[in-house]
Amino acid sequence: MNLTGLLMPMFVGRAKRCVRAAYDAEGEQRRQLRWLLERGRRTAFGAGHGFSSVRSYSDYAGQVAVTPYDELRPYVMRMIAGERDVLWSGVTRRFAQSSGTSDGKSKYIPVTADSLRLCHYRGAGYSLALYLSHYRDSRIFDGKSFILGGSYANELDLGHSRARVGDLSATLIDCINPLVNLVRVPSKKVALMADWHQKLPALVAGAADANVTNISGVPSWFLTVLREVLKAKGAENIHQVWPHLEVFFHGGIAFGPYRREYQSITDAGRMRYWENYNASEGFFAAQLSPDSPGMLLMMDCGVFYEFIPVDSPDAAPVPVWEVSAGGKYALVLTGCNGLWRYPIGDVVRVESVNPLTITIAGRTKSFINAFGEEVMVHNTDAALQAACSALGCSVKDYTVAPVFSSDGRKGRHEWLVEFAAAPADVELFARTLDKCLQTENSDYQAKRTGGIFLDNLSVVVARQGLFDDWLESTGKLGGQRKVPRLSNDRKLIENMLSFNN
Fold it and tell me: Which of the 8 DSSP states describes residue 295?
């Protein structure tokens, strides 16, 4: 029986609904905002910000300032403690732990019942629907989905709280419709395991002999799993293991640096790639078509979007009906998880406006997210200070970039460091710095655990005056000198390394 063929009309209908909402962006977004405000009036945040008097978008923009996570954290902690009607109506029991804040190691994003139903699951369904609408020959439901998830490991002392805190993917798997478990691997028990030393072989054992037709996850993490499957089966190509594998639904980090590695272990003629924009905060966009330059922003998934022009960071945010094609914007969200005018930290480029399609252009602050680790400057600054304090050395300048996995080797961070007082043992310094960075950033810590996904960072000692010479070559040597701390690719560091000879 061709189950995919039987389900195809339903999914094609969903794709049409998604696209139809995108072509009615202004109308749909105004409806989303009205509904969000109506639900928010009964919350502590809504009462404190005068939601009862808000009648329009302009009222809302005038009444509520852009609200970074640091300002939302006290509300979130009240929700974790069990208080109801704080940021969203009712009691919220589930929270997604993520890195990337300026005041702490982790942030905790509410995962409400509404956000699960209307945003995360609906968005994932739309992505699958868009894929199927373009590939009518698909047999995706005639085998298994291999979905790579996280766990409920977290750093909070929950005490008597009934909250469940962990990776968003753990909640998505835990709360998924039981019928979906009939067509997915591994088992829920394996999927939610916290110890990757045990989980990785269990993932391989649970999937290697299944009829896997599609895989979903973060490219860096899945590459490690696929290599272990190949090793277990004695195969060189993953299609020798899963001959009906047809698509990788990927997101979280840029796929480009990993494309060559995936091509080396797959049959290119049988493998498709479908990009998603999903985060702890929600499922926002998915690839519109195989050749689309951007992802379709989903207008009816319980989220109201605003955009701050990157070239005018002090400008007021604008709604979807006022963005311009080609513009780069910092994305601001209002969602049914209780985030109100929340800057997610991503920069998007608008590829088209009708329908509105986007690409991810980067982060609003310097960062490295090559492997899903979301390391920011305040993390590296603090780690460097701690390592220098521990080993009695000091640093003049530094920059960091990823070294992407290749030829079966894991990726890592590479630090180019100009010391004021060098450590006696550079290798010991690198190991110490790596441990300090894990202490500062929970996502980096997760990727480094057991050395399964990332290797220990490496340190290249810069000669004295390297960064001054490099800055002078760029015309930026002077009182406002600034060495870029973090890069998500190797362009800058390779240029700097050429000055290190």
Answer: E
Across residues 143-167, what is the average pLDDT? 88
Closest CA to 116 of 276, 275, 280, 358: 280
Q: Is the pLDDT of residue 252 over 90?
A: no
Is 231 in contact with 266 (CB distance < 8 Å)?
A: no
Give the type of residue at 144.
K
Taking residue 6's Cβ as centre, other Cβ atoms within 10 Å add up to: 10
Distance CA 68, CA 65 (A): 9
Q: Which residues contact 268 (CB under 8 A, 6 or more apart)?
A: none
How does residue 472 score in pLDDT terms, banded at 50, 70 and 90? confident
| Interval 412-420 mean pLDDT | 94
Confidence band of 476 (pLDDT split at 50, 70, 90):
low
Rounded Cα distance, 311 and 171, in Å: 37
Rounded (to 5) percent helix, strand, coil in the chain: 40, 25, 35
Q: CA nearest 448: which of 251, 204, 197?
A: 197
What is the b/e burial string over 247-283, where b = at least 16 CB atoms within 10 angstroms of the residue's CB? bbbbbbbbbebbeebbeebbeeeebbbbbbbbbbbbb
DSSP state of 475: T
- Please tell me what DSSP assigns to residue 90: S
- Cβ burial 29-53 (10 Å sphere, 16+ → b, else e): bbebbbebbebbbebbbbeebebee
How many CA atoms within 13 Å lie on the side-chain side of 139?
Answer: 11
Q: Around Cβ 476, how many Cβ atoms within 10 Å?
A: 12
SS3 413: strand
77 vs 311 pLDDT, higher one: 77
Among candidate residues 271, 22, 253, the one with its CA nearest the CA of residue 129: 22
| pLDDT(478) > 90 | no
Locus of tokens 């502590």:
44
Entry pTM: 0.83
> 127 and 133 in contact (C-beta within 8 Å)?
no
| Of 106, 114, 152, nearest in space to 442 by CA | 106
Say how far apart CA 79 and CA 163 lie, in whole Å.
9
Token digits for 202? 């269990």
DSSP 6-64: HHHHHHHHHHHHHHHHHHTHHHHHHHHHHHHHHHHTTSHHHHHTTGGG--SHHHHHHHS
What's the CA gap between 59 and 66, in Å, rounded? 14
Phi-psi region of 134 (alpha: psi -120 to 50; beta: other; left: phi over 0): alpha
- Alpha-carbon dihedral angle through residues 294, 309, 251, 4, given to the nearest 10 degrees: -40
* Distance in angstroms (rounded) separating the CA atoms of residues 415 and 399: 6
